[in-house]
Please model this.
Amino acid sequence: MACEFNLNFLKELEQEAVLEVLHRDQMVRKTEEERIRKLKLQLQQLRWKGARNVSHEYQERSCARCQKSLGLLMNRGAVCNGCSHRVCSECRVCLNPCLWKCTVCYAHGDVKVKAGEWFFEERAKKYPGEANILHFLTLGISHLQELGQSKSFNKSVENLFLSLTTHIKKISKSQNDMADRHLLTTGYGQNVERRKQRRSQSDTAINITSRVFILLYTVSNWNQVKPACSFCRGVETHTKILVLSSSLLHCEGSLYSLNSTCTDSGNFGKANITGEIEFAIRYIFKACVLEICIKGCKNLAYGEEKKKKCNPYVKVYLLPDKSPRSKWKTAVKKSTVDPEFNETLKYKIEYSQLESRQLQISVWHAGSLKYRVFLGEVVIPLAAWNFEENSMQLFSWYQLKPKLEKHEEDLIQYGGELLVSARLTVPAQCKNFQFEGMKCSKISNLAELSLFLGSCLTLPDQAEVKRKSPVLKKEACPQWKHLFVFDGVTPAQLQQSCLHLTVWDQSVFSSSDYFLGGAKLGATGKHCHLKTAQWSLSPLSSQRVNKGFGFNI
Amino acid sequence: MASATDSRYGQKESSDQNFDYMFKILIIGNSSVGKTSFLFRYADDSFTPAFVSTVGIDFKVKTIYRNDKRIKLQIWDTAGQERYRTITTAYYRGAMGFILMYDITNEESFNAVQDWSTQIKTYSWDNAQVLLVGNKCDMEDERVVSSEKGRQLAEHLGFEFFEASAKDNINVKQTFERLVDIICEKMSESLDTADPAVTGAKQGPQLTDQQAPPHQDCAC
Model:
C-alpha cells in the first residue's frame, strides 16, 4: 500500500501540481461536508419540531409530526410506512397515488439523496443477509487483520463502514418501531419529557448513522489525501485507519450510544457521589498503546435511590477528544453497587500525544430506556503520569469525584492552519534544524485565548526534543514568527524523525493547558532546501492530529 | 474553511453550496485521446489544439440545472499515461459516473477500452455508471474506428455510446447530460428500493423525481 501511493517517482514540479489539485479537492470536500451537515441539521430539527412544540399535555391520539389531535371519525390519521408513526393528512408527502410517507421520512430520504448516501448504500448491499451485527463486526475485525497488508485494505475498510451504516440504520428503524408500538399501546400518559427522550433515542440511532458516515468520509478522505501523506509515511496511515475502526468496533454491545446525546448534553440524573474505582494504566511503548484495565468499583451510590437500583457501567474518554473514537464503555453490571468489570481497553496513541491528554473515567447508572445517572468520575492528566515507573502500572483505588464544572465540557471545534517553513543548516561543525515563520490563521474563537505553540521532535531513538513558543494573547490570527531551533540533529537522524507541532491555549489557573490541535510532520525525503508548507490544523481528535498533511521538509 | 488559498481558486468554485446534488465524474482513457480537451470544452467552452499531458489528476467543478435540480459536478480529468496509474485509480472509488474515452483516429486507444472497463470494475463501485465516448469525430478523414464498431463494443460492455468532438463541440454537453441523467435514474431507483418498509408496500411506477405534488386527501 505504501508503495502504491508513493509519489516519490514524480518529479518535484509534478508533486506540486498534484498537491495543488488535492488541496483544491479538499476545499470542495469541505464545502460538501458543510452542506451535508446543514441538511442533516435541518432534518434533525424537523424531527424534533413535533416533540418540542407541545405546550399542552401529550395526547394519545395526535399526529406524530405536528401534534395536532386526531379525531375518531374525521381526520383519523394513518400510520406511516416508513416510521410507523400515526400522522395526520397534512403531514404526508405523496410519492404516488398508493404510497405516501410522513414529512420526516420523506425528508430523510431526501437528505439521503442529496447527501449522496444512496450511492454508498448501494455498495453496502453487496453484503446482504448479515443481520447480526456482532457477527458482522467480528467478520470485520478478522477482515481488518487479514487485509492489513493487502491492497484492498482501504476498500474493505470502506465496505465495513458502509455495511455498518446499513446495519445501524436497521437497528434504528426497529427502535423506531418499538418505541412507537409502546406509544400506541400505553400512550405514556402525560409524561411528555419521557416521550421526548424516547423519540430522541430513535433519533440518536439515526444520528449515529450519520456519524459513521462522517467517519467513513474521513476514511475515504484519507485515501484520497494519501498521495500527499506518502511524503511522510505510507505505513503510518494504515495504523491510523486501524485505530479509527477498532475504537468503533469496541462498542459492540452498545452501538446505539456511539454519541452520547443524553449523557453529554447534561441530560442525566445526578446521585450523591460516593465510592471508589479500581483501575490500572500502562503504556506499551513498543506498540504505542495506552492500556487501561478497569477492575471494579465499590460503595457506589444507588443510581435510583428510592428503588435502591444500580446498574453501573464505566465510560472512558481520552480527553480532549470527545468523539466516539475516543469513547469506550464497559458492560453494564446489573443490580450492584460493587461491580467487577475486569475489562481492558486500549488506545493506540503516540507517546508524545499523551501529555496533552486527560483520561476521563466516569461511572454511570443505566436506568430504563435512555435514563442515565452520573455516579462519579476520575480525571487523570496523563502529562503527570510516569509511564516508565513500574509502580504506576499497578492497580489502585481512586476516589470518585463529582463532575468538573463546564471547564472540560465545552467542546469547541477548532480548525485552522499553520504556516510553517523549515530549513536545515549544515555548517561544518554544528547542525541546526530550524523552523521559522510560524503563522496560525483562521482558528475560530481564538480571540479570547492565550496561545502558544509547542513542538516536539522525536528522534529515531525515541528521544524527544521539546520547544515552546512565546504566548500570544487574544489575537485572532496569531503570528508567532518564532524560530524553533533543534541543535545537533544530523540529516540522517532527521530522516527517521518526526515533528509534532501543537497549538495550546494557556490556562490561567489550572496547571493543564488546553490542547487545541496539532499537526505532525514526518521528515523523509529531501531536507536541504527551504520549503513552505501549509496544512490544516486538525480538530481535537488524536487521529486527526496525527493526520495533518505530511510535507517534505 | 476560508483561507488565503481560497481566493486563489475562486470563491465560486469552493464555497457555493447552492445545489441539490453533487456528482463525481471521472474521465478516463488512453493518453492523448482528448480527455482534458473534452473537459475544458464542457467546463469553460474553450479548446486548444496543443497537447499538454495531464499530470496525475485534475478536476473542474461545474454546476448545472437538470430535471429541476441544481447539480454540482466535480469532473475529474485523469492522466492517461501508465506512470500515473497508481494515482488515478485511487479516484475511481468515489466516482458515480465514468466517461471512458477513446480516439476514433487511434486504433490502439480503442483496443484499450476493454482494459479500461476492467479497471473500472476493479476499482470503482458497482453502481457507477459508464458512458463510452469516441472523441475527435471531426477528423472523419483519419477515422480508423467505425461508429458501428464503437457501438457494438459499448453494447457488449453494457455502456451507452456517444461519438463526440471537443474541437467542434459535438455531443460534449449531451454526453455529460446523459451521464447525469443515468446517475439520476440510478439514484431514484435506489431510493425506491432502499427502504425495506417501502418495498414491503406495493411497488408503484418508477419515481423519476422526488418532487411529486402532495395529495392531501389521499387516504390509502
Remarks:
- Chain B has one domain: 19-189.
- Residues 172-194 of chain B form the longest helix (23 residues).
- The domain at 19-189 of chain B is CATH 3.40.50.300 (Rossmann fold).
- The CA atoms of residues 59 and 195 of chain B lie 34 Å apart.
